[in-house]
Amino acid sequence: MNWLAVVGTREMNDAICRDIERFVGQKIAEGSGIVSGGATGVDHEAARLAYENGLDASRFSIFLPVKLELYCQALYDRAAAGKCRYDDAVDTANLLQKICQSRPGVVHDVTEFTEVNAESFHARNCQIVDLADELVAFRVNNSRGTTFTIDRARDKNILVKIFDYSINSL
């Protein structure tokens, strides 16, 4: 089985949602495992698809930068700071908690980090790439974090597929 890393930015639009649904949905149908990072936006959509398709820990992994409880609070804090939409933070926190309760072993939140910051996000992105056999990136406005993960995957010599978008609201 191949592991597909699904990465991207938190901003979404209809085109990005359609592309995720089509590409990731096809990979799930083909038997790929899905690994992502539990963020709002692209990560959330990938996790939702994997969850709705019944994937368990044998084909579904989410790496978080900190413990789940801290991460959920950080999502709410990021929304309050304008870094993501509040309803996206709530939806993502709820989905992660539901996955934790119903799909043991999917959410990986054992980490040395106690704060959500650039360092913990980069470490999380490295964990995602380390598990992956291929990577699909849904990148908006040449996002630095997504580009870092793409570069890491290329350094690992795994297949990389990039969907690039421009959104003016960022």
Describe the structure in your own words.
The protein is α/β, with parallel strands linked by helices. It has one domain (3-165): Rossmann fold, CATH 3.40.50. Helices cover 49% and strands 18% of the residues. It has 6 helices and 6 strands. The chain has a 6-stranded parallel sheet with strand order 4-3-2-1-5-6, sandwiched between helices. Helix 6 links the parallel strand 5 (134-140) and strand 6. Helix 1 packs parallel to helix 2 (42-52). The model has no long low-confidence stretch (mean pLDDT 96).
Which features would summarize this protein structure in a list?
170 residues, globular, 6 helices, alpha/beta
* Shape assignment: globular
| Total of helices | 6
Decide which structural class fits the backbone: alpha/beta
CATH architecture: 3-Layer(aba) Sandwich
Radius of gyration: 14 Å
CATH topology: Rossmann fold
List the helices and strands and how they pair.
Elements: E1 3-8, H1 14-29, E2 33-36, H2 42-52, E3 60-63, H3 68-80, H4 86-102, E4 107-108, H5 118-131, E5 134-140, H6 144-155, E6 159-165
Parallel strand pairs: 1-2, 1-5, 2-3, 3-4, 5-6
